[in-house]
Design brief:
By secondary structure, the protein is mainly beta. It is built from one helix and six strands. The chain has one domain. Strands 1-2-5-6 form a four-stranded antiparallel sheet, with no helix packed on it. The longest helix is centred in the C-terminal third of the chain and has 10 residues. Bound molecules: zinc ion (ZN). Zinc ion binds next to loops.
Length: 82
């Protein structure tokens, strides 16, 4: 179906892998992308893969999620408490 698989192997850059316990080269898996709300804050959820290919060569192949939110909104939400 996907002729060019390079399209869904976006560079995730250097990230900390929870299994390798080191900073590794990663890829972002597009199918794991969503925009959930985190405590009412719009966030970007991405699935990260440890490795430089879909099967995880040059990495352990572990997949995990990251949640990206604006710092300002976190501080605002935290400051609002109490
Ligand atoms: Zn790893």
């Amino acid at each position: 179906m996907k002729g060019d698989t390079a399209m869904d192997k976006r560079r995730g850059g250097q990230r900390y892998c929870p299994r390798c316990k080191i900073i590794v080269e990663t890829r972002v898996r597009l199918e794991g992308y969503s925009q959930p709300e985190f405590h009412g804050i719009p966030a970007k959820k991405r699935q990260i893969l440890c490795g430089t290919d879909a099967e995880g060569p040059n990495g352990c192949g572990t997949k995990w999620f990251t949640l990206e939110i604006l710092e300002d909104q976190v501080l605002w939400t935290a400051g609002k408490k109490g």
